[in-house]
Each structure stands twice: as C-alpha cells, then as structure tokens.
Design a protein that fits this description.
Elements lengths: L1 H9 L27 H5 L10 H5 L3 H5 L1 E6 L7 E7 L5 E8 L15 E4 L4 E6 L4 E7 L5 E8 L5 E7 L2 E6 L4 E7 L5 E3 L5 E2 L4 E6 L5 E6 L4 E6 L10 E4 L5 E6 L5 E5 L9 E6 L7 E8 L5 E6 L5 E6 L4 E7 L5 E9 L4 E6 L5 E6 L4 E8 L3 E8 L7 E5 L1
C-alpha cells in the first residue's frame, strides 16, 4: 500500500500520458580520480565556499529567524500556502495559512517548481492545478504572504512556474503547453499575447535560463528537454527538443557556473536513477558534462542545490532517501552519499537561505524532515514537522 501511494504521488502527471516517475564513502563519477582524495576534491583544498557553513552559522541567528519555508497545500476544495518560520535552531514553526483563490488537485503533481519566490521583489507565486490558474502574493516583512491575484494558467493542470525579472511562465501538464505573463506593479499577473506554446507529453518542470534568454521544460514521457527562445518582449518561440541523457528527466536546478543539474527518475526502476549536469544553458546548447551519473536508488525526482552551487541533493521518492553529489568546477558530477535516510516518500527539497539547513517534504507520512548540513555533502536530521495537508506539494524558501 505504501509503495502504491508513493508511485501515485510521483507519477500523477504521467497519468495523462503514461503510467510511470547505506551511505557511500567513495566518490562515484564513472571515471577516475585516483590522483586526488575525496575530501581534497570536495573541499577544493579549503576554498569551497559551501564548506564554510559552520563559520557562516556563527552570529547568524537573526537571519535564520527571518527565513521562511512555504508549502503548497494543494487541497481540491481550496488551495492554500502554508508559511513556516525557521527558528534559530533550524526547526520550522507554522505561522499562517493563506488561501490562494484557486483549487488544488488533491493529489500529486509530479513536478518541481509548483511554488516559487522572488526574493528581490518580495513576491510568491503558486499554481492551482485543479482550478487551472496561477496565483501571485506579496510577502510582508513578517514573512506572511498576501494574495494579490489569481489568473488563468492558459491551459489545463498547471504544475510548475518560473520567473525572470518581470516575466513569469507556467507549464500546464493537462494541455501540454506553456503560457507567459508580465509581472506588474504589486505582483499582478498580465498575460503575454502570443506566449502560448506546446510541450511534449508529461512535462515536469519549467525554468528560465539564468540569463533569461531561454526557457527549458523537462518531459518525463518523451525523455526530452524542450527549449524555447524568449524574445525581448518576453514571448517564447516554438520548442526545439534535446534528447535527455538520462531516462525520465524530472526536476532541475542551476549550480556553479550556470550548469543545469537534472534528475533522471528512470521510470521509478529500482536502482535506475541518475543525475546529469549540462553546460551551455545560457546559449541554448545543452551538452552533458559526464553523462548520467548513477545514485543506485529509485525515482530520483526533486533537486536542490546549495548557495554557491557546489552540492546537489536529490530526493529518491521510491527509495525513501536522499543522494548528495559534488559539482566540480567544470560541472562534472561526483556521487558522495547514495542513501541519506529520509521520511516516507520524499518529494520536494530546499536548502535554507542561510545555506546551513535543508528540508524535505515527505508525501508518505505527511511530514517535513529538518536537516543540518554537514561537511563533505552530508545531512543530519534534527527533527520533523507533522500533520501536513494530505495533498501537500512543493516547497520554496525566502
């Protein structure tokens, strides 16, 4: 029963098109690094800024107390955003729940990026998968979101959103399409005429390139990554497709030097999950750096990177654990820990604003697992938040 629920949660978007999404001390990269020890490689001979987490944490209590984590409730009757304050010890406390003005779908979305924040403008955006709409919020000085607008997603079953400067795009899994908006004063969303374009089957995530010139969409059902050139008016052109190096490309994040780190769920096959690093993101020319690097786990779906882009964490939903990778200067991936213990059915994952803590949303037991980051790509669980809404999906930090 447990595994059936997990598979349902990670492959909900597949239902529209198809039916499937012990720590290791030695680095695994499909190559040889015999001339350098693991620790020397990871700490970059003492210059890795993501390894300075203990120093950064000192005297940083105020910043931690003013950091927040947001969860999308996704209830079919009325969608909501749950706001958690991060305490100085890394634990989360629920502060408020705000209605989104739309409906969730009451189940899994099979996507990354269903809720996001704009830290520069103090805005939050969320999808309403059951109501075919997108909502925008302002974030107050107390971290609490206030609903600004709820508008049509321009398609069916919106699952993932992305923004760059004053532009926002959504991908709709039910209609296999993308749609764009201008972000107006106070966070209002204004549709961009001519912005609708088609995607392949089973989209999982949409994101702008770091320079904003391209949009990328991972497609679980086609094993492709779609690329859209965006003009100066924010209008996306037709898609061109790039074959994914790994099977069932799912979530992705950007790391150091703008490498795109993509999880490959391999249809949920036992031991089949991989992670791929791509270069050429800002030029629209994706090239895999060192192939599909195995984690030896099942259903690698959600990806989170650290502040300085040296580490990537991947939740393995069907294996109930997390894998960690080191990202080298050339974008090369190295597996550090294959199986860090997690809760039941981990979905989305985030690294906190201060780079010291990490959190995972677990669908199987409706919890948020809380972690402290440790040196050399490790995580230590410090607690959990219970009684999340049964259909909760998505995480964002602020």
């Amino acid at each position: 029963m447990k595994k059936n629920k997990i598979l349902l949660a990670i492959t909900a978007a597949f239902a529209l098109t198809m039916s499937s999404c012990t720590k290791e001390d030695n680095l695994s990269n499909g190559g040889s690094s015999s001339d350098i020890s693991s620790s020397e490689l990871i700490n970059e001979n003492g210059t890795n800024p993501d390894e300075e987490i203990f120093k950064e944490s000192q005297g940083n209590e105020q910043q931690r107390h003013n950091s927040f984590v947001y969860i999308l409730g996704n209830d079919a009757a009325q969608n909501s955003v749950l706001c958690y304050r991060q305490q100085s010890n890394g634990h989360l406390t629920l502060e408020t729940t705000v209605m989104s003005g739309g409906a969730g779908n009451g189940g899994g979305l099979g996507s990354q990026g269903s809720i996001i924040t704009d830290k520069n403008k103090g805005l939050l955006f969320a999808v309403n998968a059951g109501g075919n709409s997108v909502s925008s919020f302002t974030i107050g000085s107390n971290g609490h979101p206030t609903l600004v607008s709820t508008v049509s997603s321009g398609g069916v079953m919106p699952i993932s959103i992305t923004y760059h400067k004053n532009k926002l795009y959504v991908v709709n899994a039910g209609s296999n399409s993308i749609y764009g908006y201008n972000i107006g004063m106070g966070g209002t969303l204004n549709p961009i005429a001519g912005s609708m374009q088609s995607t392949g089957a089973g989209p999982a995530q949409i994101s702008f390139s770091p320079n904003g010139n391209y949009l990328y969409v991972t497609e679980k059902a086609t094993n492709m990554i779609s690329k859209y050139m965006v003009n100066s008016n924010g209008i996306a052109g037709p898609a061109t497709t790039i074959p994914s190096v790994g099977q069932t490309p799912f979530g992705f994040e950007f790391a150091r030097n703008n490498y795109m780190i993509v999880s490959n769920a391999a249809g949920g096959a036992a031991g089949g999950s991989t992670l791929t690093s791509y270069s050429g993101i800002n030029s629209g020319n994706l090239n895999a750096v060192n192939g599909a690097v195995p984690s030896n786990q099942a259903a690698a779906c959600w990806v989170a990177t650290t502040k300085f882009g040296r580490f990537a964490f991947v939740t393995n939903t069907a294996s109930d654990n997390i894998s960690s990778y080191y990202i080298g200067n050339t974008g090369r991936l190295y597996l550090i820990h294959s199986a860090i213990a997690s809760g039941d059915g981990p979905l989305d994952m985030v690294v906190s604003k201060n780079n010291f803590h990490a959190y995972t949303l677990c669908a199987g037991d409706h919890t948020i697992r809380e972690y402290s980051r440790t040196l050399l790509g490790g995580l230590t669980q410090i607690g959990s938040v219970t009684k999340l809404p049964p259909a909760a999906v998505g995480m964002a930090t602020y």
